[in-house]
Specification:
alpha+beta, ten-stranded mixed β-sheet, 442 residues, seven-stranded mixed β-sheet, 25% helix
């Protein structure tokens, strides 16, 4: 395994680790104008520095290329859904599994984005709806750094850096003014090297290389006299053993804005501070798709009140009792095909109703993030997922409801995983022994 000083992995040790994630100092940042079009090209508000691919044939070609890198069936190229793994909501029954060789990182409250750089196709961002957004790479920084020998595909969260923003301005900085960070947390392919089938440590060891390659190419371009700026800084997330999650906890910071509590992940050493909504636990002994060992999924833990479900809201919005209709996806009884069904209805106060109608404007439908308020016994709208077209599946809704009612506190989670320290170390030893068998003897 790589040394902690040049990778995203922190090895299990008893002393305080060196934090191995990168900060804004690695590249220059510029936010391009958020105009609606340029030379006939469409700019999406979610990616104000990139141009949306609208040509159907081109979009299909790009989707097919990414499906090839992901090693999934080509039929996925025709679907409006990113063919990547999604985390399961954690509950108490998950603890023994997580103790078995899982690694933990903070859960960035950003936009799930793939960074795809190909020598033949160019440089793109890919959102959850499997739409592509072309980056302006006229100086070839991404292409040279990440596709000299073949494509690179990184799984990331796009988020704004709120470092330096006073507490009352944190939310505004997170939405409007902070410089962009592309926080990479997994690698599917790096410079043509296939990584999808490798265990977690074999994949994320390349994140630091990708980050450093972009920073180095940016410096070389500057040395040549080229005035190059990038729309975001490529950073790599910090991973630690699950039982040592207290290292990540030490970087959490609560921020109160207008009576509402929010959380940030504050890496002071790297001048990185981003909105956070929990933790992600990823198994080492599984492939990127999580299909190699389905019994070892990715798990997410979210702060109290942040366990949300993505329901679909549709006109006319309310039933004949005036309650908001929340729709989810479920399997049809006989065919098993996914279908849109009403999960339940929920009452809104006059103020909540007015805010909802103002937020959605003239939309015909919208995917809304909803949290279950156990005290009030009803679902509440917390936000909107303009990047999504479909609601969560029924099993996600039920697991979220269970997690909301039986919330595991951060301290209890830490203590329970620490109790299982020996099980984690045994799993890690098995991994190291397996790796050793693959190394040729000199």
């Amino acid at each position: 395994m790589s040394d902690a000083s040049d990778s995203t992995v922190i090895q299990p040790v008893d002393k305080k680790p060196h934090v191995a994630s990168d900060g804004p100092s690695s590249s220059a940042i510029v936010q391009l104008p958020t105009h609606n079009s340029h030379a006939g090209r469409v700019v999406d508000p979610a990616y104000p520095f990139a141009y949306k691919v609208t040509n159907g044939q081109r979009l299909f070609e790009l989707r097919s290329a990414v499906c090839g890198v992901l090693q999934v069936e080509s039929s996925a190229a025709s679907k409006r859904k990113l063919p990547g793994p999604l985390p399961h909501t954690m509950n108490r029954a998950s603890l023994p599994t997580i103790a078995n060789g899982y690694w933990v990182c903070e859960k960035t409250d950003g936009a799930r984005t793939l960074l795809f750089v190909s020598p033949s196709h160019g440089s793109y961002l890919v959102d959850r709806s499997f739409d592509f957004f072309e980056l302006d790479d006229s100086h070839g920084v991404f292409k040279t750094a990440l596709s000299k020998e073949g494509p690179t595909l990184l799984d990331c969260e796009l988020v704004r850096n709120v470092h330096g923003a006073p507490a009352p301005m944190v939310l505004q900085a997170a939405k409007e003014t902070g410089p962009f960070l592309m926080c990479a947390f997994d690698a599917v392919m790096f410079n043509g090297l296939p990584l999808a089938a490798k265990p977690l440590l074999g994949r994320i060891s390349h994140l630091g290389q990708a980050r450093d390659a972009v920073a180095a190419e940016l410096r070389e371009a500057a040395d040549r006299g080229a005035a190059v700026t990038l729309p975001f800084t490529l950073a790599s997330k910090l991973f630690v053993p699950a039982y040592q999650m207290e290292r990540v906890m030490g970087m959490f910071e609560a921020v109160d804005v207008r009576g509402d509590r929010h959380y940030c992940f504050n890496n002071k050493d790297k001048a990185i501070k981003t909105l956070n909504d929990g933790l992600i636990f990823t198994p080492n002994d599984n492939s990127y798709s999580m299909q190699q060992s389905p019994e070892l999924p990715i798990y997410k833990w979210k702060w109290p009140g942040m366990n949300t479900v993505d329901f679909l809201l549709k006109r006319p919005w309310f039933d004949n009792k005036g309650e908001l209709v929340l729709a989810m996806t479920a399997a049809e009884p006989f065919s098993g095909k996914p279908a849109l069904v009403t999960a339940r209805t929920t009452a809104l106060s006059d103020g909540e109703r007015q805010k909802l109608m103002a937020d959605i404007g003239h939309a015909v439908s919208v995917v809304a993030e909803c949290a279950f308020d156990a005290a009030a016994g009803r679902w509440k709208v917390k936000g909107y997922r303009w990047d999504k077209k479909e609601p969560n599946f029924s099993n996600t809704v039920f697991s979220c409801l269970e997690a909301s009612v039986d919330q595991i506190s951060l301290d209890v989670l830490r203590d329970e995983l620490l109790k299982r320290k020996d099980a984690w170390k045994a799993a890690y030893d098995r991994y190291q022994q397996a790796v050793a068998t693959l190394v040729p003897k000199s």
